[in-house]
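Possible regression after last week's pipeline update?

I re-ran a chain I had predicted before the update to compare outputs. Posting the input and the new output here so someone can diff against the archived version. Not blocking, just want to make sure nothing changed silently.
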Amino acid sequence: MFKQVSTKQKIIYLSSIIIFILICCIIFVNFMNDSSEKNDINFKSNNIKLQHAGNNPEIYSCGKEFFFITKDGVKVYNSSGVLKWEEVFNMSETPMVASNEDYVAIAEKQDKNLYVANSDKLLYNKKFDNIILNVSINNQGYASVILQNGDNYTIYTYDDEGVERTKTEIQEENLIPIATSISNDNSILAISLLNISPTELNLKSTIVLYSIDKKNNEEFNDNVIGSILDKEELIGKIKFMDNNMLIGISDKEIFGIEINKTKGIQEKWNSKFKNILTHSLYLNNNIIATVFSNDQDKNNDKKSFIVFYDIDGNITGKYYSNNSINYINGKGDNVVLKTGVLDRHILALDTNGKKLWQYNLIQDIKSINFIENTNKILVSGILETDILERSKKIYNNEQDLEDNVKEKSIIKEGLMKLKENNENNNKENTTNENNKLKDTKENKNKEVNNKEGIEK
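New output (post-update):
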């Protein structure tokens, strides 16, 4: 038999459910909107959307402007999304871009053109006969470009006005230039060379330093200053940073080469990798960010982590992630990461490894860039790029604060009402049980009396 539920009980049950749902909704809304904590924020669009229809842009932010580069040309916008200037060109594929502070170098392998610009204008354009393998630029606007002609390679360097400084031929068999960098005092060119000799069992790399300061070239034979020889690794990245410290990143280590007239050339520090390097980034000419996969450590449930080094090899910070880190970009002393399977979760860190904020996007993204600071970001998807600004929930006046107090009072009152209803419900259930026991006892007494009457 089914237990008969009274109308009063139904009302109590229904009101309890409604109050519970309302409390959950209020708590959820507060959780989604409350951004007083650094890692719980909101972003809103400023409705400036840059269309690129699948033409994946290369975006670089500097100061209060950003470069928007596609195979159709380069555009520079201010932080509000207003076009400052543009230069139209036509490349067959997405160009390679090197950037450093206020300067960018843009090149495309098959197009054989080099464009150098700062945030104010296009500085110059160079046309070559051979294909372009790589480009670099320093913070003074000096650029270097690697050209390939069959098995021969040529590296040109140019000043910020497009005047050729040096031309270096690499004609030694089995040597391939991988990367270049020009010192920030415009005096030295560093070239990372890969040795692909068939007699070598392991990869070997050499970093050769050349003088591009014509005043000092008489001191050196063929402009060569010196070299760091025979590292059994692929040195894919090199960059001169503050104090002419050359930072190299290979598949096995990160290291710093110090160059000065007194001490000569020496490797000042290195840090061997125990995990697989997945991403790396030079920041602000004095910090290097390295991202690693943590699959080798079976005792650690963290899937990836990031380590920050200064130019002297000191670790300034670390951050461990429960998810894989799939992307890194940065500006100044901050980086932004994409994590997870869907590439929609982003978080910002400073170079001490401190989390500044985290945010979940609703669409797949290709790249993220800071504009000005960490409170304004460029989010680039498949079809368009959107400018998002951080919005905090701040009580700007007494009315906002009063509304928040009222919200909390509603939650408290609802919890008390729910508790009161539960207590009343329990009391009624107890009374019903007592009445049921009383009825059962009376029925038994009646049965006894009836039995005695029948016997009499």
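Follow-up from reviewer: compared with the archived run. The radius of gyration is 34 Å. Marking as no regression found.
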